[in-house]
Amino acid sequence: MSLFGPPAAAPAPTPGPPQRRSRALVITAVVLLVGFLLLTAFSAFWTERLWFRSVDFSGVFTTLVLTRVGLFTVFGLLMALTVALNMHLAYRFRPFFRPSSLEQENLERYREAINPVKGWVLAGAAVLIGLFAGASASGKWREFTTWRHSETFGTADPYFDRDVSFYVFELGWLHYVVDFLLAAAIVGLLASVLVHYLYGGIRLQAPRDKFSPAAQIQVSVLLGLAVLAKAADYWLDRYDLLNTSGSLITGMNFTDDNAVLPAKNILVGIAIICAVLFFLNVWRRTWMLPSVGIALLALSAILLGMLWPGIVQRFQVAPNQPDKESAYIEKNIEATRAAYNLDDVEVTRYNSAPDLGSALTQLETGTSSVPLVDPKLVSPTFEQQQQVRAYYTVADVLDVDRYTLDGEERALVLGVRELDQAGLAESDRNWANLHTVYTHGSGMIAAYANQRPGDNGSQADAIQWAEGQEETQKALSSLSDEPFEQRVYFGETSPVYSVVGKAKEDGKDVELDLPRGEEGSSPTSTYDGKGGVPVGSPFNRLLYAVKYGEPNFLLSGRIHEDSKILYERNPRRMVEKVAPWLTVDSDPYPVVVDGRIQWVLDGYTVTDKYPLSQKESFEDMIDDSLQDDLGFQTLPTDEINYVRNAVKATVDAYDGTVKLYAWDEADPILKVWRNVFPDTVLDKDEIPEALVSHLRYPEDMFKAQRYQFARYHVTDPKDWYAGNDRWEVPNDPNVKNSQQPPYRLFANPQGDEDPNAEQIWSLTSVYVPREKNNLAAFVSVNSDATSPDYGKIKVLELSDERTNGPVQVANEIASDEDVRDELFSFDQGGINPRYGNLLTLPVGDGLMYVQPLYAARDASESSYPILSFVLVSYGGNVGVAPTLRGAIADVLGVDDSAPSTGGSGGKGSGGGKGEQSPTTGTVNQRIKALLADAEEQFAAADKAQRAGDTVAWAEAIEKAKELINEAVELSEDK
Questions:
Q1: GO CC annotations (predicted)?
Q2: What is the pLDDT of residues 293-338, one digit of tens each?
C-alpha cells in the first residue's frame, strides 16, 4: 500500500492510431475492388469461351486468344526489354566523376530520391511501355495472320510487278514491323538520354564534351537504328502509292510516278547514308557529319517529298491533265472492274420503242411475276392482321423469297413473327417473365408478293395470305417432310438472354407459345434444342450473375441443374463473332429448309488494299431509302476497294446452329482465312440442296457494284475523265434525298419481245445520267443460285435519251387525271395515299413501270396500309385499276372485264359501252371479246404446261398471241 493512499489506477490502453485503421480500410477496399474487377474480367472471358463452345466454334476462340496473347507477349517483351536494356546500359556506364556545376547540383537531389528504388523505376517504366506496345500488337492480329497464311491472287501490279497478295496480305504487317522498330529505337533513345542526363552522361550546360563516350556511343547507335528504320519506311511507302486516294483516282498518277516515287527512292538513299554516319560517330566522336546528314534528310523530305510534287502537278499535269493521266486512268479502270467483279458485265444497246401489242403478250403470260406487295410498306399490315399478341413483331422492311407452292414458283413477302418484349404490359415485366416465360417468337407470316386480291378470283383482302393464323405455317410447312419447328429463339429482336429448360421430365412447361384456337389460349413449351450454355452449376450461375449484374441467377428457383442460358442471339452478331474476318450483309433473311426456319446471311471478304482499284465509302455505296443498318466492318475505315461474296452463312432460328459455307471458293482472301481458322468454313458442295434454291444474290454486293459501274461502265480513259457519260442511281420518288433501292423480282433481263422468254429471278435497278432524270440504263443480276448464270450482270443501255426515268414517271402518274380522280375519293374519306415500289420492267422493246398504291388512315393507331390500286406507265400512257391486269388494259385503252351483255370501258382513252360480240358491236366491244378469248387460251396454256404437254402449250400461246395482235390492230385503227 502506498504511503500516500491507494495506488493510482493503471491508465486505460490508448486506441491505435487512426492512420493504422484507415490504412487497413483502404487496403481492404482496394483488395475488394481488384478482386471484383478480376472476377468481372474472368466472367466475361469464360462466358465468351462457353458461348463459342455452345455453337461449336471453340477453335475460333482459341486461335484468336492464342494469336492475340502471343503478339501481346512477344512485342510487349521486346519493347520492355528495349527500354530496360537501354536504361540499364545508360546507368551501368554512367560517369563516376561528374564535374561540379549548378546543373549537376540541381540533379543530385533527384538522383538521391531515385537511387533507393532505381530497380523499381526501371522495371515499372519497362513494364508500362511494354504493356502499351503489347496492346498495340495484339490489335494487329489480322495483319499478322494474313501475312503468315498469304495466298496469291495470280495478278501482278503493272508498276512493281508484285502479286496483289503482297499489297493485300503482306504490306500492312511489314509496315507495322518497321513502325515498331522505329518506335522501339525512339523509345530506347529517349529512355537512355533521360538516364544519361540524370547521371551526368549528358551535360547540356558544359562548355565542351557535352556527351560522355558511353552516352555518345549509345545515342549514336540508337539514332542510326531509328534512321535506318525510317529508310525502310520510305521504301515501303513506294508501294503505298498504288493505294493512295487522290483527287482523281485511287493509285498511281502522273505526279506520283514522275515526282513522288523518285523522291522516295532518293530519300531511302539519304536515310541510309545518315544511318551510316551515325554508326561512324561511334568512333569519330563528332556530331558534325550526322547533323549535316539529318539536316539534308529533313530538307530533302520537304523539297522532294512536298514542294517538287506540287510543282509537277501545277505546271506539268494541270494544263494537260487528260493526256498526262490517261495511262494511269486506264490502269485504274482495269483494276476497279476486276476488284468489284465487273469484268464480265454484259452491256446491250436497247432501243426503247414501246410496243403495246408485244407488251400485252408478255404481261399476260407473266402477270403473276410482277410483285405488287411492297416489303417496306406492308409491315404494319402484317402486324395488324397476323401479329396475334402485342409482344410479337415483324421487321420494318420484310424479305422477298421464292417458293414452289402447288407446283408453281411464287414470290413471297415474308416476315418472322419474333418476340418483342417492349410490347409487354408493365405489370408483366418482371425478371421471371422476361427471362423464363417470354423467351421466343413463333413462325413466319407470308403473303404472295405478286398477287393482288381478286387477280385469281379470290375474295378481296388487304393482303393475299399464303398462310393464315388458324392454319399456322400450312403452306410453308408443306415444303418439307420433316416436322415443322416454328419456335424462334434466335432472331433479330430476341431478348438479351433467356433461361430455358425444366427441372425434370414431368416438370411444368413455362415458356409461352403462340396462342391457338378461337379462344386464343396460350400453350406453353420447353426448349430442348442443342444450343445454349448449361447454367445450372453454382460456378456458372455466379459467372452469369456477375456478367449481367443479376442476383436472380443465384436466387431464383427457375434456374436448376438442367437449365440453359441463351444469349448472343442476333443472327448477324453470331456470324460476326464466329467469323470476325467477314463483313456481314445488313439484311439477314429467313427461309424454310427441312422443316426449320433458317436465317441466311451473306458474308463478304473486303479489303482497302487492292492496288489501283478505286476506294469508296462502303456506307455511301450501299446507302438507299431502305438502308437502316450497315454491315459489320472488318476494316479500320469505312473505305473498301475490293469485295467478294465469299461466304453464305445460316443460323438456325430454333437452336442457334451456325454454319458457314464457302461460296466463292476461288477468292484468295477466303483461302487465307480458311487457313487461319481451319474446319470452320464448309465446302460449297456441302450446302443442302433444299437451301440452294433460296440463296440469292446479296443486295449490299449488288449496290456496291452498281455504284462503281455507274462510272466504270466507261472504259475509254479520256471519256472517263470527261465524265460526260457518267450515270447515277436515281432518287427514290417516295423518299426525299435517298437513292432508289434495288428490287427483287422475276424479270426478263434482255427485254426480249418473245412472250415465252424465261422470267429470271433477278435483282434489278436503273441508272439515270448524272444530274438528269431521263433513263440511261436498266441493270439486273441473275439471283437464281441454281442457275449456271448466277451472278451474271446484264445492262440494257438505252439508245433513246427521251425515255423517262423513275422521278419523271412518278410525276406523270401523280398528275394523271384518272389517278387524281381515284385519289379524290381518298381525300373525301380522310385516307392518306402511300405509293409503293416503282418497279421498272423491260417489256416489248420498251420499259414498263408498275407501282402499287396503298391507302391508310394516319389518324388511327390501328391503321395499316391496304393495297387499293395498281398504277402502270408504258409508252407515255398511264393506267390505273384495282388489279395489274386491269391497269395494263387501261394503258391499252380498253376494259379488261370478261365478255358480258354489257360493260364499261377502262379509264384510258378508249373507254366505251355497248353489247359485246366477237364479230359484231363497237370496236371496244370486239377488243374486249378478243382479249377474253386470249385469256382463255392463256389459261389453257397454263393447264397444258402443268400437264407437261409442250405441244398444246405452244399452240395455245400462239393462238393467244394472234388474238392479242388482232385486238391491238383494232385499237390502233380506232
A1: extracellular region; plasma membrane
A2: 889 999 999 999 899 999 999 999 999 999 999 999 999 999 999 9
Residue range 543-567: average pLDDT? 93
Cβ contacts of 619 within 8 Å, gap of 6 or more: 630, 638
- d(C-alpha 849, C-alpha 856), whole Å: 23
pLDDT tens digits for 628-677?
655 545 555 689 999 999 999 999 999 999 999 999 999 999 999 999 99
Gap between the Cα atoms of 230 and 237, Å rounded: 10
CA atoms within 13 A of residue 62's CA, in its CB half-sphere: 8
Name the residue ranges covered by the structural domains of the chain: 73-317, 361-569, 801-973
- Hunting for cell 504511503 — which residue is that? 3
Query: Is residue 965 packed enough to be buried (19+ CB in 10 Å), middle (13-18) or exposed (0-12)?
Result: middle
What is the rounded CA–CA span in Å between residue 140 and residue 130? 16
Kindly state the cell numbers that stand for 382: 402484317
Query: Is the pLDDT at 759 greater than 90, yes or no?
Result: no
What grid cell was written down for 568? 448472343
Which of the four pLDDT bands, split at 50, 70 and 90, describes residue 519?
Answer: low
Prediction pTM value: 0.85
How many Cα atoms are found within 13 Å in the side-chain-facing hemisphere of 108? 10
Class of residue 970 by CB neighbours under 10 A (exposed 0-12, middle 13-18, buried 19+): middle
Q: What angle do CA 273, 283, 277 make, to 5 degrees?
A: 10
Judge residue 534's burial from the number of C-beta atoms within 10 Å of its C-beta, 0-12 exposed, 13-18 middle, 19 or more buried. middle
Query: How far apart are the C-alpha atoms of 171 and 833, rounded to whole Å?
Result: 56
